[in-house]
Write a structure and sequence with these properties.
The complex is a heterodimer of chains A (571) and B (430). With 571 residues, chain A is an alpha+beta fold. Chain A contains 18 helices and 22 strands. In chain A, strands 5, 6, 7, 13, 14, 15, 16, 17 and 18 form a nine-stranded mixed beta sheet that branches. In chain A, strands 1, 2, 9, 10, 11, 12, 19 and 20 form an eight-stranded mixed beta sheet that branches. In chain A, strands 3-8-4 form a three-stranded antiparallel beta sheet. Chain A is globular and about 85 Å long. The N and C termini of chain A lie far apart (64 Å). Chain B has 430 residues and is α/β, with parallel strands linked by helices. Chain B has two domains: 3-40 and 269-429, FAD/NAD(P)-binding domain (3-Layer(bba) Sandwich); 126-258, Rossmann fold (3-Layer(aba) Sandwich). Chain B has ten helices and 20 strands. Classes of the chains: A alpha+beta (571), B alpha/beta (430). At the A-B interface, helix 7, helix 15, helix 16, helix 17 and helix 18 of A face strand 8, helix 4, helix 7, strand 13 and strand 18 of B.
Chain lengths: 571, 430
């Protein structure tokens, strides 16, 4: 018997998790399927900026107005995911005066609160700014943790009866009589739900309505029902520094261009970005020139970036979309608006809606719009409350300080935990004693890891995004095997080992774009730890190689033992 | 043996210099080995080291050759002939490798094992597999994978680097010829959540709060007569023999250590053993960074160390470069190039940074082989194949042409090239 749900949401990024939460809170039976981990697509591969809207104020006032409105809402409902850093749009001598003035006017027209600063005043806020910066506009930008945001949405959805399936790939859409009636899902064994990746791991989920929220992959999903959705995927590079040369989001004040933003994020800063259209969101070049460009260009705003330590680079793919026949050439000119595509009216296929375009800052609004659309389709009269209902972890922002006092959580480690966990701090930390630090770089303790394991199963990359473990300087060099050990004995040893190998692979993927300076030395140190001290690369358990144990030194025939039973074989 | 000499620096400042026969830059196992070899050759030797040794990062095992082309090596000496010509082992030859190991055995005495055979031993790792090594601390000797006695692994709650139940299950999966069981016991003392291994070791060293006896009691409660018990390698720094003996006596089983990640107690102990050997050999140690050098034609005449902002010249007849590789900052890099920062010796790297690495994490990483290339006397060579300096030799991980993590050969290279470089430098200088 196939499973049935009212609404099936495809895609576990910000839009999909936001939507499944929106639907669940309206009392609708909803299921979300995601082929990887939550936020493993575009959402987790952006620069973590909560837009004030200032970036779009001149070119796209409508988007700008949505941004500033959602910016305020998210500060209320998702405070534990947001660091209110503020932002500056800074102008160098060669940047246009008139554009700067237009930006100020446009922001005010969009109700974005701004303040114009002299170069000197800007440097008093951010001393690391280049001396040549002439003027700046202060705007309410902020840093947002997209992982924490998606997880909080998913948890709230589950709390309201939704089902969330990760490592569940849609391999087909079921179409009957010109209507989409469900999807065929292939479960990866990592989900922990299935024993093997055999045919039995295929599942059909029937749904009254299916929402395609697969972002850059939305075209592929629609294609399963022979519908064309011409997503224009555009890649952008991001480079992660190991420190925060600035505590404010720094934007370059110019019309458009690559390499124009620095977002401070936890202990790091993220440099962004580039904008290059790609044919396939799964296969594109990760080019060295993009990394070099980010460092060179952004050093003009913040000179310290030139010699800062970079820990990794990563690329994300924007799910850009414009209606057919618009014909924009340059991907940076394609609108950042979102589109709700009703495939009944558009393609004469009922039962399917696609949401494309948009951006993280407006994810909630997009989810609400799709939720309204779906309710309309299903004839359900229920209103969205996501603009006012706080996410798990942000329910009692005022309580965190009090809870930290009550728990004696005054150490820097506990403070980091509390920042990540928000109002869940007490519940999570109280469960584990002793509670040692597992990831030293990011000060993540066993309690947080165990809490994440409960939510994710044996997937260290999913645990990583929930906790930040392995996201610091050493990129999991010291903590990777510890994280794997935390999976045991809840999961068996081979499962833990495979999870470790996947984490290693994922960490290496970004790190290999940062192999110079201290990070190259770090890579060599990690090599030594993984391949020499831990010997993971030639581990007989992994290679399946049979070892001729008797051929090796067994300790007998050596020097006499120095203690009663100190060493060697006593016989 | 110091000879004070008045020296005139180019900027006209007259400084009182210190002069030795051999000056070694770098305090890792290669530099310390070179200093001992130079002293044995009758030279006065001085060694500069700028910070904590990388021995603290290493497991404390002395690998010679564990893998060739990915294949597990039983006897390193049977495989050395198969290595490429640019490999340091090929350059120095088997006799130098044996001389290096013999020096290691003399220095470490009864604190290390494995010298009775050319064959590698398979030592349990803290992740739960085994790794091949030529020499191992006496404290790990009872844990070898080829010993067929059953094993209990015991970890400490709160010491996250070694999870004994997970490691035991993993060890079983490697096919070891014995049964393994893993348990976690609560360490008798409460530490900070991010307590380092050295904190555990210190508590055991001073028997803080009767920790040794209490720990033994806790292990005894879960011990089921396995003839050997493995614990994380935190069993003391100075008192490690006594601690192990006490535990063994109480538990009536052999007690061994499983080497862990940094900070590594076996590595710290090995450093201690070497420092006392250096002291006995009369080697002077300068705990400052070498920041500059002077040359006369193709010869280095002196190096300058920075002592709290003061520049102190040290003259010598011969010099040994043993600053380590990328890990030990013997090699530094930026987005364009890799440099050897002390004498600016030539380092050949691919022009395009994308060719510095392989996409596969466990591939043969090109960056792992970065380093100086040397002639048969271990003198670093220029791009044209000429010696950079007539009186400079290089040893250890600063050498290029080998991938120590992939081949399991780091310590062996340091011992072989350190011994040869130190001996040649000493002979040249005296």
């Amino acid at each position: 018997m196939p499973d049935a749900t009212e609404v099936l949401v495809i895609g576990g990024g910000s839009t999909g998790t936001g939507l499944v939460r929106d639907l669940a809170r309206r009392g609708i039976d909803a299921t979300l399927v995601e082929s990887g981990t939550l936020a493993s697509g575009t959402t987790g591969r952006m620069h973590g900026l909560l837009h004030s809207g200032a970036r779009y104020a001149v070119s796209d006032p409508e988007s700008a107005r949505e941004c500033i409105s959602e910016n305020a809402i998210l500060r209320d409902i998702a405070g534990h995911c947001i660091e209110p850093t503020g932002g500056l749009f800074v102008k160098r001598p060669e940047d246009s005066e008139s554009y700067f003035d237009d930006k100020v006017t446009a922001c005010r027209d969009c109700d974005i609160p701004v303040e114009v600063l002299s170069g000197e005043d800007a440097r008093s806020i951010e001393p690391a700014l280049d001396p040549s910066v002439e003027r700046a506009i202060a705007v309410p930008d902020a840093a947002i943790d997209p992982f924490r945001l998606c997880v909080a949405n998913a948890v709230d959805a589950e709390n309201h009866g939704a089902r969330i399936e990760t490592h569940a790939e849609v391999v087909d859409l079921k179409v009957e009589d010109g209507a989409v009636v469900g999807a065929v899902i292939a479960q990866d064994p990592k989900s922990g739900d299935t024993e093997t990746a055999s045919d039995s791991a295929r599942e059909t989920i029937l749904a009254d309505h299916v929402v395609n929220a697969a972002g850059a992959w939305a075209g592929q999903i629609a294609g399963l029902a022979d519908i064309e959705v011409a997503v224009r995927p555009s890649k952008g590079a991001m480079t992660v520094l190991n420190s925060r040369p600035v505590d404010t989001v720094i934007n370059r004040c110019r019309p458009k261009g690559d390499a124009d933003i620095v977002v401070p994020h936890e202990t790091t800063a993220i440099l962004g970005t580039t904008d290059v259209e790609v044919a396939d969101p799964d296969a594109y070049a990760e080019a060295q020139w993009e990394v070099d460009l980010l460092i060179e260009e952004l050093s003009e705003l913040v000179p310290g970036i030139r010699d800062a330590r970079t820990v990794r680079s990563y690329w994300g793919v924007r799910p850009l979309y414009e209606p057919p026949e618009t014909g924009t050439d340059d991907p940076s000119d394609i609108t950042r608006n979102y589109f709700v595509l009703d495939h009944k009216s558009r393609d004469d296929t009922a039962g399917l809606t696609t949401i494309v375009g948009g951006k993280l800052t407006t994810y909630r609004l997009m989810a609400e719009a799709v939720g309204d659309h779906v309710c309309d389709k299903l004839g359900i009269d229920a209103r969205s409350d996501t603009a006012s209902a706080p996410l798990p972890g942000s329910e009692h922002p005022g309580d965190i300080e009090a809870a930290m006092d009550r728990f004696g959580l005054r150490s820097p480690i506990a403070r980091r935990s509390a920042e990540r966990l928000g109002s869940r701090t007490e519940d999570v930390l109280a469960k584990v004693d002793p509670n040692p630090v597992v990831c030293n770089c990011e000060a993540v303790t066993r309690a947080e890891i165990q809490d994440a394991i409960e939510g994710t199963g044996p997937d260290l990359n999913a645990i990583r995004i929930r906790t930040r473990a392995s996201m610091g300087n050493c990129q999991g060099g010291r903590c990777g095997h510890r994280l794997a050990a935390e999976l045991h004995p809840t999961f068996d040893e081979p499962t833990a080992r495979e999870a470790l190998d996947e984490l290693r692979e994922e960490r290496w993927k970004g790190q290999r774009h940062a192999l110079w300076g201290v990070q190259l030395s770090q890579a060599m140190l990690n090599d030594a730890h993984f391949r020499t001290t831990l010997n993971e690369d030639r581990d007989p358990a992994r290679t399946g190689e049979s070892v001729d144990w008797a051929a090796f030194d067994d300790g007998s025939g050596g020097k006499p033992v120095d203690t009663k039973r100190g060493g060697g074989r006593g016989d | 043996m110091d000879r004070a000499a008045n020296r005139s620096t180019p900027n006209g400042v007259v400084a009182v210099g210190i002069e030795d026969d051999v000056f070694i830059v770098g305090g890792g196992i290669a530099g310390m080995t070179a200093a001992l070899a130079a002293a044995e050759a009758g030279a006065s030797a001085r060694l500069a080291t700028k910070k904590q040794s990388t021995l603290r990062q290493a497991s404390g095992l002395a690998d010679v050759l564990g893998y060739v082309n990915g294949d597990l090596v039983v006897d390193p000496f049977e495989k050395i002939q198969t290595l490429p010509a640019e490999h340091p082992y090929s350059i120095v030859g088997e006799s130098a490798i044996r001389a290096g190991l013999a020096r290691f055995d003399r220095v470490t005495g009864d604190t290390y094992r494995g010298s009775h055979t050319d064959r590698n031993a398979l030592v349990p790792t803290h992740g739960g597999t085994v790794k091949p090594t030529a020499r191992y601390p006496e404290s790990v000797a009872a844990g070898l994978g080829s010993d067929d006695r059953d094993m209990l692994l015991a970890g400490f709650d709160g010491l996250v680097d070694f999870d004994a139940p997970a490691a035991a299950a993993h060890l079983e999966a490697t096919g070891v010829p014995f049964d393994t069981r893993g348990v976690t016991v609560t360490f008798p003392l409460d530490f900070e959540p991010d307590a380092k291994k050295t904190r555990f070791a210190h508590a055991l060293d001073i028997d803080e709060g009767d920790v040794r006896g209490r720990l033994a009691d806790r292990i005894a409660k879960v011990h089921e007569n396995e003839p050997r018990i493995g614990l994380p390698a935190v069993l003391g720094t100075d008192e490690h023999r006594r601690i192990r003996t006490e535990l063994a006596n109480t538990l009536d089983a052999d007690v061994f250590e499983v080497p862990t990640g940094p900070p590594s107690l076996p590595g710290i102990r090995l450093e201690g053993v070497y420092l006392s050997a250096l002291r006995d050999a009369g080697v002077e140690i300068v705990r400052n960074e070498v920041v500059d050098f002077e040359r006369s034609g193709k010869r280095i005449t002196s190096v300058t160390v920075d002592r709290n902002g003061q520049r102190i010249p040290h003259a010598a007849s011969s010099f040994v470069l043993a600053t380590g590789g990328l890990v030990g900052t013997g090699l530094i890099s930026d987005r364009e190039a890799v440099r050897e920062p002390v004498f600016d010796c030539h380092i050949q790297v691919p022009e395009d940074r994308e060719d510095w690495y392989e996409r596969d994490l466990y591939g043969e990483q090109p960056y792992a082989k970065f380093g100086v290339s040397v002639d048969e006397q271990l003198r670093p060579q220029t791009v044209g194949g000429e010696p950079e300096f007539e009186n400079l030799r290089a040893a250890g991980s600063v050498l290029g042409g080998f991938d120590f993590p992939a081949s399991g050969s780091g310590t062996g290279i340091s011992l072989a090239t350190g011994s040869l470089a130190g001996r040649l430098a000493g002979e040249e200088a005296t």
